[in-house]
């Protein structure tokens, strides 16, 4: 039951701009019988949300795969736009990896500190408020450039801190760069895939030896719950961003953050 609850929590908060890592950290500190940080479980439920992105953006991912294969000798030609997006995703992944690795110890230490997570949630609230007030949202996918990719990738790297919403930080950065809402969401989600896969591989290599048979059932339940709730949450994210409905999430993060800070 705990795995089911945490999996649903992960899936619903991973894509909504309210920080899945912050919610998981608070839940693992508050739910009875759950000792944290549960790094392996966190990785497994993140893989569930990763699969949700793959399902919903399978056509775009196929285009990116063809673009990657087009560099092989004798490969079929592909549109330049697909190659450009592939390059921008790789470019944006560079600051994400560098910042994520640099802040890894800090982020893991904050998992057991509700006040630190709360402070980061307050930062997320500010980002969401600002994103509703700035940007003309006039630039389409053809106008996405290298600077956009680097800035969004930097925001994603900083979101390794529990309480900083990855989707909130990356989408807000895209909107600040005047990207249309649908473009900001799509690039944010596609850019998250290498980061999540890389983090899963890194932590999996460190934690895999500790996996026991008794953990398989809760891990499977958590994965499935994260996948199902993630599919729904992506649709909600697309709706709220394109219709400028982020302020309620800012209020939610502010209230939850303030409560976490008060807990100490």
Please supply descriptive tags for the structure shown above.
264 residues, mainly alpha, 77% helix
Helix content: over 70%
Count of the domains: 1
Beta-strand content estimate:
under 5%
Low-confidence residue ranges: none
Short description:
The chain has helices spanning about 1-15, 20-30, 40-55, 60-70, 80-100, 105-110, 115-135, 145-160, 165-175, 180-205, 215-240, 245-264.
Describe the protein in words.
The structure is a single chain. The protein is an all-alpha fold. The chain has one domain. 77% of the residues lie in helices and 0% in strands. It has twelve helices and no strands. The chain has helices at residues 2-15, 20-30, 39-56, 58-69, 80-102, 104-110, 114-133, 146-158, 166-176, 181-207, 213-242, 247-263. Helix 4 (58-69) packs across helix 5 and helix 5 crosses helix 10. The longest helix is centred in the C-terminal third of the chain and has 30 residues, at 213-242. It is globular. The mean pLDDT is 89.
Write the layout of secondary structure elements.
Layout: H1 2-15, H2 20-30, H3 39-56, H4 58-69, H5 80-102, H6 104-110, H7 114-133, H8 146-158, H9 166-176, H10 181-207, H11 213-242, H12 247-263
Helix pairs in contact: 1-2, 1-3, 1-11, 2-7, 3-10, 3-11, 4-5, 5-8, 5-10, 7-9, 7-12, 8-9, 9-10
């Amino acid at each position: 039951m705990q795995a089911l609850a945490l999996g649903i929590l992960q899936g619903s908060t991973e894509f909504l701009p309210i920080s899945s890592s912050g919610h998981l950290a608070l839940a693992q500190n508050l739910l009875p019988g759950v000792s944290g940080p549960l790094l392996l479980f966190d990785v497994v439920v993140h893989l569930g949300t990763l699969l949700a992105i793959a399902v919903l953006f399978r056509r775009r991912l196929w285009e990116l795969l063809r673009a990657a294969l087009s560099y092989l000798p004798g490969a079929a030609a592909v549109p330049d736009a697909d190659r450009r997006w592939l390059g921008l995703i790789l470019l944006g992944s560079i600051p994400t990896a560098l910042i994520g690795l640099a802040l890894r110890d800090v982020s893991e230490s904050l998992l057991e500190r509700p006040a630190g997570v709360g402070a980061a949630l307050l930062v997320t609230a500010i980002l969401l408020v600002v994103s509703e007030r700035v940007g003309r949202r006039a630039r389409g996918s053809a106008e996405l450039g290298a600077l956009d990719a680097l800035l969004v990738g930097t925001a994603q790297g900083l979101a390794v801190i529990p309480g900083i919403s990855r989707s909130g930080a990356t989408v807000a950065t895209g909107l600040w760069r005047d990207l249309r809402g649908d473009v900001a969401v799509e690039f944010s989600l596609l850019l998250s895939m290498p980061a999540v896969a890389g983090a899963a591989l890194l932590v999996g290599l460190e934690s895999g030896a500790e996996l026991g048979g008794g953990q398989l059932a809760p891990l499977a339940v958590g994965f499935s719950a994260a996948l199902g709730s993630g599919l729904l949450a992506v649709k909600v994210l697309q709706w709220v961003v394109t219709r400028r409905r982020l302020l309620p999430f800012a209020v939610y993060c502010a209230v939850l953050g303030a409560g976490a800070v008060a807990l100490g």
